[in-house]
Amino acid sequence: MATVLVAAMPFAGHVNPLAALSAALVGRGHDVVAYTGRKYAQRFEEAGARVWLWSEAPDFDDLAIGETFPAIGRGRGLRAIVANMRELFIGTAAAQAHDVARLASDVRPDAVVADCLCLGPGLWAEREGVPWAGVSLVPLSAHNPWGPPAGSPFLPARSRPAALRNRVLAAAMSAGPGEAVRGLVNRQRSALGLGPTRRPGLDSAYSERLTIAQGIPELEYPRPEPVPGVELIGQLVPPSAGPLPAWWGRWPAGGAAGPRDPGNAQRGSHRASAPRSGRAHSRRGGSHGRRPVVVLATGGGVGLGDMPAGAFATDFLPYARILEDLDAVVSNGGYGTVLAALGAGVPLVIAGSAIDKPDIARRVAWAGAGIDLGTGRPTPSQVRDAVARVLGDPAYRRRARELGVSMRAAGGTARSVDLIETRLLGA
């Protein structure tokens, strides 16, 4: 048995995948110590881990970040993104490492497994010579000399001019914003007595020994060579089970179905989905444009107004029980929901709302498994027309099913624990 420190930024979408990994490590007989914020301590305790809380690192509520980090404000726009990096994700790294150093004086971990945006535990591990792994919860953002750079509106090149454009942009991003981010990282490293990293941007958050990355190759843009240490494992959090709503199955006669999903499956309560009424209904005659459609929405219907016939809203939908009965999922691009849908072979319509979500939407469309609406605030007609296209063109479902095969083959949580045991613990 080994003692493994698992570290997660105290955001729901970060905690749940790391808690799932913690539970799997505990199930293999390992002693897990989790480092996170007070708000999510219970989630790790339920996974069988002991908890170390943020102390010198300023703890915060992920739904009210501006109260602890005023420069971030409401977390919207380029200025807020820069402030997030400077104040929170990078700016707390040295304090996190100090927390771990103090707590590790009593229980020294044999290995560290850290959310790639929770930098401090990995820096402590590097300084102390403890093997560590990163966990990437979103598509890889490591520098890609072929481009396109992460966050840009461009796709992999299909022509020589586009290839040149992408490479120039990638070089410019590395030399500009990437260099600025590296400077912030090196300031934290210096505070811990570590030498500077030469890796651009946040690339040093990817452990060259092992980085467990959610996703599959089909959602990653081509590179001249792989990112060192990265293993794509599909999804860490399996779709959750639970009871079906009381109204389940009360569809209009001959109904099919489509989804609405404004949230993130990694949150545990799915704030978005749009299923079909079931395989039998979906196969009944007529085009999707003429037969009744069942729309399932999560989030309790807040802000939805009066629900039309055939539309149902609830706080929670058990994805593990319903995903395979969906015709489509409409999402804001949360990676948890996207991976869960693709794992079940369900195509998507995505309105990428902020931060990494527009990039996720582009990747799904590029992979052929859905439609990118190109905006975080689509009109009803844009959503309607995109859903009609996804339902009417079988190529989307065929491609989603192909990606589902890849998702299942990637190994998920079980393979992640295998990798930790072999590469970090020498098992």
UniProtKB/TrEMBL annotation:
TM segment ranges: none
Signal sequence coordinates: none
Chain segments carrying region Disordered: 250-292
Every Erythromycin biosynthesis protein CIII-like C-terminal domain range: 295-408
Amino acid composition bias (Basic residues), ranges on this chain: 278-291
InterPro entries: EryCIII-like_C, Glycosyltransferase_28, UDP_glucos_trans
Biased composition (Low complexity): 250-263
SUPFAM superfamilies documented for this protein: UDP-Glycosyltransferase/glycogen phosphorylase
Protein name: Erythromycin biosynthesis protein CIII-like C-terminal domain-containing protein
Native source organism of the sequence: Sinomonas cellulolyticus
Species classification: Bacteria, Bacillati, Actinomycetota, Actinomycetes, Micrococcales
